[in-house]
Design a protein that fits this description.
This protein is an all-alpha fold. Helices cover about 40% and strands about 0% of the residues.
């Protein structure tokens, strides 16, 4: 008995190609971004509230890195 093949849903690239009307990924190299021309703006308030749970998450994941950069806790 022959197998019945089911149509597969289109891939993300196929969906983008249909949406944009051109092949995806675009042919050629991606444009270079000149990071020297970037501007960083700090528009946060002076103090940003942080909960104790957020501090604990950062300490759990980045504690070794913090100790290496700033020294161990006293």
């Amino acid at each position: 008995m022959p197998r019945v093949s089911r149509p597969h849903p289109p891939t993300a690239s196929e969906q983008l190609e249909r949406l944009l009307g051109k092949p995806w990924p675009f042919p050629g190299r991606p444009p270079k971004h000149d990071v020297e021309a970037w501007t960083v703006t700090d528009d946060w308030p002076d103090r940003v509230p942080v909960t104790q749970a957020e501090v604990e998450v950062f300490e759990a994941w980045f504690g070794d890195l913090f100790d290496e950069m700033f020294g161990p806790c006293r």
